[in-house]
Design a protein that fits this description.
There is one protein chain. This protein has 533 residues and is an all-alpha fold. The protein is 73% helix and 0% strand. Helix 1 packs parallel to helix 6 and helix 1 packs antiparallel against helix 8.
Length: 533
């Protein structure tokens, strides 16, 4: 039976080595580069998606360009986190960067949609280790009570990635080739490898020579995640919900998940320690991370579609037009981190963030062909503010709720839940968008000869659309708007669930590294043992 993790803000002893402020900042220089690498990828690729789909063909596979990446990243995240606990952060972090770079190079050489999706999955395997590695290393060297101060440094990368990424992606698509949206990772990744090789040298490593990896749990985890995403992607589109394929996938999902739970309960070193879920705050923050991922990845994928097809923006401008959301996310994340560091209190942030995210998604569900760019920008500010309140806070709560010996696995589990939400969000919202768009355009084509003879949706790009008759352009713009409205209405419903989850999160004082293993945190009362170093 797994041990029970008490709901405490302190347990376990401090890491074996202490880092001075200078050493922390030096180490964080490598983490910032790695985080920039991970964040830039999806930001750069998003504006290029319409052109990629038009060039390689296959609107029906649009969601899988992102879903394949997110799915692989999701499955790999807890594995990388646990390997970091067992082998040491440095070797696993460097390995994840290498996987990411190999996948990036192969994506740029893709000749069809199948190859691109497969190589994006390989790229995602590495990306899963980048984000969990950054957060786990930061947890190793900085206690939760002080972590918000250093997270402010980490947040300095957000304007570069979230504003510069879409701009770079749009520029590359318009003036070079979409393939450079992947090749651009290579020089940055080489710098990340070099810097991290040196700055992570002081991190503790496994010297016992004994490593027991839960490969059975890792395999079962991959199976049930994959089949679950296939159900949400294919159900109602490729296959009827009652078809043998969907029912068979559902059976495999349930069986693999049940087997996964049984294996994890008995494994000596489980890939995902179930004991961390006995902590109420960890479970609630994980559930909220799932909702954030659902909204964030879905929104990033679909908004450029509306901006390019309906509002007539170029790929470059569609990236630029995402700035209000990115800036709002950065400002609220920095502000929330500073507030938490100064006061030690954080409970209001997930509640406010959930409300703003639900409102923002609901506003997006009202957009139509006549919605102006200024109105869209206002909606983005609301959604971005909600994301900023939630992104770092949910991870901080999760890490503060886990024992230090399992910090890598716990960070991996929390990141896994966010990525799982993103994977399902992209597949579910993408399927809803594609299905509604196709049905709406087919309905319009029934009454328009021009629309009926306009070619297939699979080959539709913004350039092709601009060359079609006005009646077809109007019909397609309305179809895209209908698809966007449907997808974001469902997203708003999911975010509303997040509000309920956030209300049940308790305030548990943020711990320091010198808290003893038996220290208990009383909810709402600061403990003398929870001092910082």
């Amino acid at each position: 039976m797994p041990h029970t993790a008490p709901e405490t803000a302190a347990d376990e002893t401090a890491p074996p080595s202490r880092f001075t402020h200078r050493e922390i900042m030096l180490t964080m220089s490598g983490l910032v580069i790695a985080m920039l690498l991970a964040m830039l990828d999806n930001m750069i690729v998003a504006p290029a998606l319409p052109t990629i789909v038009g060039d390689l063909g296959g609107l029906n596979h649009l969601a899988w360009v992102t879903t394949g990446y997110v799915l692989a990243s999701t499955a790999a995240t807890p594995i990388w986190g646990k390997l970091g606990d067992l082998l040491g952060r440095r070797i696993t972090f460097l390995s994840s960067i290498a996987f990411f770079l190999i996948g990036s190079a192969l994506c740029g050489m893709s000749q069809n949609m199948g190859e691109l999706i497969g190589f994006r999955a390989l790229q995602g395997l590495g990306a899963g280790g980048l984000m969990v590695g950054v957060m786990a290393v930061l947890a190793d060297i900085v206690p939760p009570r002080d972590r918000s101060k250093y997270q402010g440094v980490m947040m300095a990368v957000m304007p570069v990635a979230m504003i510069g990424g879409p701009l770079a992606g749009g520029f590359i698509t318009d003036h070079l080739s979409w393939r450079w949206a992947f090749y651009v990772n290579l020089p940055l990744g080489a710098v990340a490898l070099l810097v991290c090789w040196f700055v992570l040298a002081k991190l503790p490593r496994n010297t016992s020579g004994q490593v027991r990896i839960d490969w059975t749990g890792a395999a079962l985890l991959t199976v049930w995640i994959t089949t679950l995403v296939l159900i949400t992607t294919w159900g109602g589109t490729e296959y009827d919900w009652g078809s043998a394929v969907i029912i068979g996938l559902a059976v495999v999902t349930v069986a693999a998940f049940a087997a996964f739970v049984m294996v994890e309960r008995r494994a000596a070193e489980p890939i995902m320690p179930l004991s961390v879920f006995t902590n109420r705050n960890f479970s609630l923050s994980g559930a909220l991370s799932f909702v954030v991922g659902f909204a964030m990845f879905g929104g990033m994928t679909l908004l450029p579609q509306f901006q390019q097809y309906v509002q007539g923006s170029s790929a470059t401008n569609s990236g630029l037009l995402l700035m209000p959301m990115m800036l709002a996310a950065m400002v609220f994340s920095l502000g929330g981190g500073a507030l938490t560091s100064r006061t030690g209190r954080y409970r209001a942030l997930p509640i406010l963030g959930s409300v703003l995210m639900a409102v923002g998604l609901g506003l997006f569900a009202t957009m139509g062909p006549d919605t102006s760019r200024n109105v869209t920008a206002l909606y983005m500010v609301v959604l971005g503010a909600g994301m900023g309140c939630l992104m770092q806070t949910t991870m901080l709560i999760a890490q503060n709720s886990a024992p230090l010996r399992d910090i890598g696995a716990a960070t991996g589990a929390a990141t896994f839940l966010r990525n799982m939400g993103g994977s399902l969000g992209v597949s579910v919202l993408g399927a809803l968008y594609t299905s509604t768009l196709s049905d709406s355009f087919a309905s319009a084509a029934g009454g328009s000869g021009d629309a009926a003879n306009s070619g297939t949706l699979a080959q539709m790009t913004p350039e092709v659309l601009r060359g079609l008759p006005e009646t077809v352009r109007d019909a397609f713009a309305q179809a895209v708007s209908n698809g966007i409205d449907t997808a974001f209405a469902w997203g708003a419903g999911a975010a509303a669930v997040g509000i309920v989850i956030a209300l049940f999160i308790r305030h548990v004082p943020l711990r320091g590294f010198n808290a003893g293993p038996d220290t208990q945190a009383v909810e709402g009362e600061p403990s003398p043992a929870l001092t910082t170093t």
